[in-house]
């Protein structure tokens, strides 16, 4: 076989079309009668287009929690940001009043600390025990270690987890039946030590439900 015959058999057959002629050839691959919608489906199946799905809802929304925009929060005199999810209709919690609450500390959509999960000292069960404290008092003074016997077994009279310091002041002004959400900064939360799933020096959300108010005279 002559060497001069090789270029004519290989070079001309492998030559690619120039950019000037590439676009018309692409346009002719789709019939003119095909609708835009059908053409998009064909391109999608061929991998030229990518379907864009709507962004997934937040974790809080999926769990049924109310999402409060930052601009809707009010500012307390001590600088805490709060929002009343439900306005109560009962007695008002005033400074010096003994109150019972349920509280939940939420970090990135996860409930890390909650009075609804108080641990029994005897047994392996949890109880939803309200937390009782004096509004405006120093945090932690009420955590006495009295013990009580009942059908649930032996448990502490204040078996609920430790609440953040912000709860002792931001509860003032709430009414029984009300629910309040608070943005807790680290210095009024769990500080440099953190708590459970809340890392050190981290802000979080605090949900408070006011169950009962006992005035100083009644106490």
UniProtKB/TrEMBL annotation:
Residues 96-214 form the PPIase FKBP-type domain. It comes from the Eukaryota. It catalyses: [protein]-peptidylproline (omega=180) = [protein]-peptidylproline (omega=0). Keywords: Isomerase, Rotamase. Its EC number is 5.2.1.8. Residues 1-27 are annotated as: Disordered. GO terms for molecular function: peptidyl-prolyl cis-trans isomerase activity. Gene3D superfamilies: 3.10.50.40. The keyword Isomerase applies. InterPro entries: FKBP18-like (IPR044180), PPIase_dom_sf (IPR046357), PPIase_FKBP_dom (IPR001179). This is peptidylprolyl isomerase. The gene is LOC101759768.
């Amino acid at each position: 076989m002559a060497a001069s015959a090789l270029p004519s058999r290989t070079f001309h057959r492998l030559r690619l079309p120039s950019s000037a002629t590439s676009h018309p050839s692409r346009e002719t691959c789709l019939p003119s009668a095909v609708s835009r919608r059908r053409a998009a489906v064909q391109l999608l199946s061929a991998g030229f287009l990518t379907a864009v799905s709507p962004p997934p809802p937040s974790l809080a929304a999926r769990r049924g929690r109310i999402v409060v925009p930052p601009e809707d929060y009010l500012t307390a005199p001590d600088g805490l940001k709060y929002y009343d999810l439900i306005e109560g209709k009962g007695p008002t919690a005033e400074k010096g009043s003994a109150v019972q609450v349920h509280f939940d500390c939420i970090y990135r959509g996860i409930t890390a600390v909650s009075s609804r999960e108080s641990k029994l000292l005897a047994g392996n069960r949890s109880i939803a025990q309200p937390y009782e404290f004096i509004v405006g008092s120093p945090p932690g003074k009420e955590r006495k270690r009295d013990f009580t016997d009942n059908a649930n077994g032996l448990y502490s009279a204040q078996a609920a987890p430790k609440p953040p310091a912000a709860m002792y002041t931001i509860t003032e002004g709430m009414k029984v039946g009300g629910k309040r959400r608070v943005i807790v900064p680290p210095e009024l939360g769990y500080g440099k030590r953190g708590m459970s799933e809340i890392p050190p020096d981290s802000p979080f959300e605090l949900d408070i439900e006011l169950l009962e108010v006992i005035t100083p005279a009644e106490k």
